[in-house]
Amino acid sequence: MVKSQSSQFDIASSPQGNVKISLICNSSQQSGFRIPSLDAVLKLVEEKYIITYRITEPGFSVVKVMKDVYECFLAEGTNCTDDGQEIENEKLIGTGLQKQQTLQSIQKVKNKTEAEEQS
Fold this sequence. Notes:
It comes from Camellia lanceoleosa. This is Inactive histone-lysine N-methyltransferase SUVR2. By secondary structure, this protein is of the alpha+beta class. The protein has a domain at 38-118. The chain has helices at 38-52, 62-78, 90-118, and strands at 6-13, 20-26. A hairpin with a 6-residue loop joins strand 1 (6-13) and strand 2. The longest helix has 29 residues, at 90-118.
C-alpha cells in the first residue's frame, strides 16, 4: 500500500484570502521525489526569467508576479456582472493601469528577445 503524501504551499493570496495561488504536491505519485524548498524553487525560477527575458528591473520577484496575478484575477472578477459582462469600476482603474504598464514592460522585453532570436 502506497502512502499518500501531499503538501500545499501557498505562494500568494489576497488579504482576505478569497483568492489564493498555491502549489499542491502529491509526492507519492513519483518514486524518489522529495519536496524541495519553496524558496529554492522560487529563486531558481527568478534566475531563469531574469536571464531568459533579460529583466533588469531591480527587485523582480516571482512572488510579486503571482501577487499581480491574484490582484488582476480579483479585479477582473470584481469588474464583471453575474452574466460575465464587464462593468466600470473607478476604484480599479489605478490598479489596472499599474498592472497594464507592468504587463506592457514584460511584453516589450519578450518582443525584443524574440526579435533578437530571429536575427
